[in-house]
């Protein structure tokens, strides 16, 4: 359990540092921070309430700023960067990879970002400006321009000597790229091949085809899914003319995978996936209010349905008591389907060829569970209220609503995706509105007709 | 947009294959499958309804079975493996990595798994049995035993010659492991160092400390979080005596990250994260029913609250019409907080040192949004129903419930975690029950007292 201890230590470090800050032992904290890896400081900052976060940032060695910023999530990064002077920021970006600098600059206001750029030396600035020219969320925006190219007509031995002179390879280098005179990518040479091949063999004989090179405009989620399927560690990036323009490494891909997966979960609950756990209260309240506003409309839609049946409700209060059960069950069942479909859409498992089967399957599950819960709830209502008719009405409404939930659970996310609306963001709320309205309409409608 | 095309082609391939299956062009499909990479066949199987999936599996070259099985999610894998003869399965596992074989065997019934093991040759069987001896979800269960060890007292040149004789390196090898005579890990030699160092330098001089080696019992999510923070491609695994027992590579870590992130999203909706998109209807219906059963209890709890106020409901039907609004808003606001806290707990950002701040922050957000929505909803009710008292009552209930939602949204997941119950699984349901019951009690209670 050695590593479990390591993790407990990390939590303990946080506790200790928090306590030291409270009693003002700043020198002590500064020393502790110096002993920590930048990525661990980043973790500490994410886990710190806002006030301690700012103090910790002041106590951190500015030399680590760049690496730490790169590890932080958007909102936390923004909160720190917004208070830094452009020249400090420019200094912090020295030694960072170009794509990481671009990532940090992207979230700054335009004038600050321009100010920071103007403080860099020309080569660096040109590289960063190129990185910034690719749209956010494209392969170009997460690639680095740090890679090693070789020519196909030399021997392994020449490459080995070249690398020894070079002395250091870019991070996560697992292959060298073979290019022609026009800078077009023609192959890849895994460095393991370099190690296991006799020195006198020409590169062209041992290199691998680079047939699956990634286009610079590919969407980052698609890049991640390719990496995941192919088990890549890094991959070359080419432009429309097959010219080699960059390289994406697995660590950036892991960030994309993590963000995409978190996005679905947070969006379903109506949250921003960048949201800082310790964001300022007013800012959070405002952001979340948008989602509550959408729900007010949904809740008012449901209330309007009940309002149409006010006379029935007046006649028999038991109906009012029971009327929340059917919408509630429909919402839960429908959201199960929505979660399944959102995951399937994200993984590319659902398309035109199989959506019909999926709809049938989820509708059938609705029928099966509908029958079961219609009987159970019907039985409970008969036992509780001693009214067979009311039991029958709630059973019929339950069965209908669970089938509707299955059908809507498949259709709504697929339709939203077709309309280019993020299904994770709007799917759950739209589904709940449908199951609320249908559930109430059927239950109260039948009650009005039959009682 | 070269790669967008590649992806569209993948979807088109699925469509084509589905159509070919429908009209019985099996030979054609078999040929298409032969041209595909195992991981792409796995993707095709995941995206196929059950009937076509079985046919596709029959048409796939059995030589690819092992690699395909390794890429499939649990439920899909189970559905295929359950119909394979043990000897076919034993053959399929040849050439797979040990951890992957163990992963496949773990999901089989004990007798089938024993049967498959008995068909393997002795060396292979022993390796797989060792892998199976580590508990699921531990570092040991995802590590491979395929790695290269060297001694610290030799020169770089000796290692280079050794590797050339060996001819091939295990997948994703980015470092060789330096061990002592007792097989204890003393260092790592990145293969990039091997390429950039002069041949006559001893290994001990250029190797890196392996101070952060992972213990074989570490939980896989913690392994993933270390990989993510340290940007590792692979890492050595040691036992309690620091003896080197295995190696974990980034591709297995990516699977863990993906599964963990999906787990939160699917669990919040009451779904199993292994659930096959095209699972059999009866099996799915049964699995989901458990969650619906939990919700029945929650819905009945809410109905019992309304039942206590039946007299009030009888008196004024408008109260029944409006009574769903307050619980609905509380549930949505509370689930925002729950999502934030579950993510924070999963990332290790929330602990004893900062939970008080978090509680304060979320309660304050509840106050701010509570005031805002109390005014808006109160206003709407006054305008709609022309009843100032009813407007005041719903406002008071709304404010109370949004503050409760913030407090419960923080407390419930943290308490569940303390009780060793998965907060992602039970958090949302528990929260909704609290906000339903409190929301109804305050609204109907005030109405009973004041009207």
Briefly summarize what is shown:
The structure is a homodimer of 451-residue chains. Chain A has helices spanning 2-22, 26-34, 38-46, 50-59, 65-71, 74-81, 86-92, 98-106, 110-118, 122-133, 139-142, 156-166, 191-196, 203-206, 220-230, 250-268, 281-308, 310-315, 317-322, 325-346, 355-385, 388-418, 423-450; strands spanning 149-150, 175-179, 185-190, 208-209, 214-215, 234-238, 244-249. By secondary structure, chain A is an alpha/beta fold.
What does this molecule look like?
The structure is a homodimer of 451-residue chains. With 451 residues, chain A is an alpha/beta fold. Chain A folds into 3 domains: 2-138, MgtE N-terminal fold (Alpha Horseshoe); 149-268, CBS-domain, CATH 3.10.580; 281-450, SLC41 divalent cation transporters, integral membrane domain (Tetracycline Repressor, domain 2). Helices cover 68% and strands 6% of the residues of chain A. Chain A has 23 helices and 7 strands. In chain A, the strands form 2 sheets. A 4-stranded mixed beta sheet of chain A has the order 1-2-3-4. The first copy, chain A, has a 3-stranded mixed beta sheet with strand order 5-6-7. In chain A, strand 2 and strand 3 (185-190) form a beta hairpin. In chain A, helix 16 (250-268) packs parallel to helix 23 (423-450). At the A-B interface, helix 1, helix 3, helix 12, helix 13 and strand 5 of A face helix 1, helix 3, helix 12, helix 13 and strand 5 of B. Chains A, B: The chain crosses the membrane at residues 290-309, 315-342, 363-384, 390-416, 428-450. Chains A, B: Its main location: membrane. Chains A, B: Homodimer. Chains A, B: Acts as a magnesium transporter. Chains A, B: One of its GO terms (molecular function) is metal ion binding.
